[in-house]
């Protein structure tokens, strides 16, 4: 197998997923205002677009994962990316908020490619090398998060719909590249049942949670997602209200943290996880995240923010180590199904947490305690560490009950 071109394609896929999503962040207000011609309606529709995107990821990710187990990773990846490119083009031409909502929902469904990428990595890497591979995926994720808003802002200044055209062109270019260089990592198994129970998100998630070890790992991941999304959803507002940061200062903090995280994931996480092992690395990373969030709640001087961001970056190894651990805990023929269910769990957090965290942050301002929301996030980070600590480090050589029978 030509692993180097294949991994390059996978990294590009994750980067473009985040780039496409990030492109619209700085231009959604202008786009929605131009479409609705009403600032109040624009705010409503912007929030609705974000929620529907996460909801469709929740609905479709388990199905994509199951399809990749049954028919192979390659066709599902290429088909999803093609649909995503079509959706971005449709965004560029949408004349009304309703059509934007439909196409953004479709984009959320197609963005479930992250599920198949994780399964592909598990197919082509040895267990001891997966932390490094997932670290590279995390780096691509972070770079897409940095590049998306920057590119979207620059192109949006020329034309508010131009970023969508750029996202579509990049998506189609990646499909063309993948068509020629991406080999199949695992031939599909037509004996893998494609039942409504395992294809619908609620049943797929329930089947994962019923398995003791995998259920604890999924719970730990959900807690970590809640902590991460709480931080992301309120961070810019916290910097504005607590320290009166300008948009430039906020951009510097966000870009510095994302770039540092990308370098750390690409260069250091693999060796650290190999030295500590998946379990210890995941627990240590979660505890570092808990420390960073707790200290942020009480920070009083701006320079400490950079130190706490550094601690948070170090703690990001938890997600990579946990992903590697999960991939070892399931059989090869159910990697896609499990990754899809986990993506569905993450989509729940991405749909619900921004709204909940925003309401909680607004409430905290009433009592002049904008940092209190981070104490809540720290509780979830601590819960993630606890679940990881009490989970046995089993391997797929002696797997739990299969999802088909769970």
Description:
Residues 6-395 form the Major facilitator superfamily (MFS) profile domain. This is Tetracycline resistance MFS efflux pump. It comes from Micromonospora andamanensis. The protein has 406 residues and is mainly alpha-helical. The protein has 2 domains: 1-181, Growth Hormone, Chain: A (Up-down Bundle); 200-406, Growth Hormone, Chain: A. The protein has helices spanning 3-23, 28-36, 39-71, 73-93, 97-110, 113-124, 130-158, 162-181, 196-199, 201-209, 212-243, 247-267, 269-276, 278-298, 302-315, 317-328, 335-366, 372-389. The longest helix is centred in the first third of the chain and has 33 residues, at 39-71. The mean pLDDT is 83.
Brief write-up:
It contains 18 helices and no strands. With 406 residues, the chain is mostly helical.
Using the alpha-carbon principal axes, give the shape: globular
Beta fraction: under 5%
Q: Give unreliable regions as ranges.
A: none
Overall average residue pLDDT: 83
**How many distinct helices?**
18
Number of domains: 2
CATH H level, superfamily name of the largest domain: MFS general substrate transporter like domains
> How far is the N terminus from the C terminus?
34 Å
CATH architecture of the largest domain: Up-down Bundle
Rounded radius of gyration (Å): 20 Å
Q: What share of residues is helical?
A: over 70%
Please provide the ordered H/E string of secondary-structure elements: HHHHHHHHHHHHHHHHHH
- CATH topology name of the largest domain: Growth Hormone, Chain: A
Q: Tell me the total number of β-strands.
A: 0
Secondary structure category: mainly alpha
Major beta sheet, specifics?
Answer: none
Q: What's the CATH first level of the largest domain?
A: Mainly Alpha
